[in-house]
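Archive entry. Fields below.
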Amino acid sequence: MPILTDRDREAVRTELDKLTGPVKLVVFSTSLGASEYCAETERLVKEVAECSDQVTVEILNLHIDRDRAAAYGVDRVPAIVVEGARDYGIRFFGIPMGYEFTNLIDSMIAASSGTPTLSVATLERLAGLKEQVHIQVFSTPT
Amino acid sequence: MRLAHHLAIASDLIRADCVEATEFPDMAQRYMVMAVPKTVVNDRVSFEGALPEVQFVDAVLQAVDGEGQGANR
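PREDICTED_STRUCTURE:
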């Protein structure tokens, strides 16, 4: 049974029409442990990809594709890497449902152009960064 | 979360993870996630709730400027 309803798919298609370039969703999954969440995440991502020709999906296994997981800094599943022209450092851990589904779509649109929607002042402040920054935002599906 | 991902696009030095707290209870416990959204920056600065862009960037820069009060963990 599909996760997205016909109405959801229509809304996703409309949003993904805003993509200005290709987007790749790299899903890290496993057949062990959190396999139920992984299977659902794989299904959701594939359904999203069906809504736009610009979106491709690559499914990797955390335990088999260890080098790729290490390169992406992924150590738990399910995980989704949202890539545009390159890897911008956008990650989702867990199924992006509810409000986070909106964020997944938004991050895809932003990654497709590589252009963030931020003020000039913020961009100037970030230009002065000299250290790595790791931001983790915890959310729940509601 | 949207803001964090846009910051990641803006800077090669920033990585932004969205973590579903109920699927990763060990992490939620480690970072003492009692309310969402909860944001943790470099394990040093943390805050609950959605902040406007300026304050969010303040918190991010505070984490690298060495002024952090320490994340709950």
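CURATOR_NOTE: The helical segments of chain B are 2-10, 25-30, 53-64.
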